Amino acid sequence: MGADWSRIRREFPALDHWTFLNTATFGQLPRRSVQAVMRHFAHRDETACTDFLEWFSAADRIRQNAATLLHCAPDDIAFVPNAATALATLMNGMDWHSGDRVVTLAGEFPNNLYAPAVLAGLGVEFVETPWESFYDVVTAHTRLVLLSTVNYTNGFRPPLEEISPFLRERGVLLYVDGTQSVGALPFDTAAIQPAVLGVDAYKWLLGPTGSGLLYVRPDVRRRLRPSVIGWRSHKDWRRVANLHHGTPEFASAAEKYEGGMLNFPSLFGLGASLEMMLEIGPAAIETRVKELAAHTRDLLRELGARLLCDEAPHYDAPVIAARFPGRDAAELARGLRERRVLVSARHGNLRVSAHFYNNEEDLERLGAELQRLR
Fold first, then answer.
1. For the domain 5-28+281-373, what is the CATH code?
2. Which of 1, 37, 104, 329 is packed most tightly, with the most Cβ within 10 A?
């Protein structure tokens, strides 16, 4: 039996008041995630936090579900507050040398533009390149490539299945930011084998802000030093009655990058969202998201929009960029918001991003309101 999308939609109260087609900016929290956060706070009051070590055991169960979603081992996963922290873990844990090169695509998310730019003082070269020139700029000096699974402004989806082996053959590390697709489209770390994957969970993973995932490949963990050092850095940190004093001995698991206390309220909210997604099934979610994306493209074409996905390959993503000749995207987005239809404008594109909680009626309303605005 297929997923009951009408029942699933009722998990998201914001959809009662808005035609929400803007998950690429913020995902909506399901009721169960809010309830998980509130249960945690109530439990703190009941127990006076005497069982705080058990919270970490609950976090390990969430780690297992995250690993199931990403096709990796639980030891490969650390929790981070956002994707910027995930990238910083990699950037700060590497030994940089003058002449090293970092490569990313033009128009990448600012995380991937700002972080490597500050390495210029160490003599590290930072290259932003159009996709058409990507393979040409990966030289013998390239140490790291930074890519998003889906570009946040236009929906470009680089072919990671081709890029990753090309880089591994040359000893180049691949960092992938999965924030704009993980939770909507499958990501198989075993197949793609990035060095590091960072995912901010507040978009397509439908987690609270302050929750995110960091995957670090086992061989990379052996040489990537932790940059956040705290009481949980030593491998026996659970022995709180007799914490280790002295130089920490790091565990081999990715949790060594967490350093200190976790953001448990947000983490438990994320855990509830992950459980829901695994219950629905990643394959069913992918199918539903692709159906809605196809419907969105058809609707926008009928309204006279120019779609980047019609002009070049690798735009098969749930983040859909449209341009209406003679109309300002920001003005259209503002007009739609006044009609309680939420999309966004990014770098001249009207960006529409439907998740599995959306339905065809949402898209019909978008089409009707766009037609009125035009």
1. 3.90.1150.10
2. 104
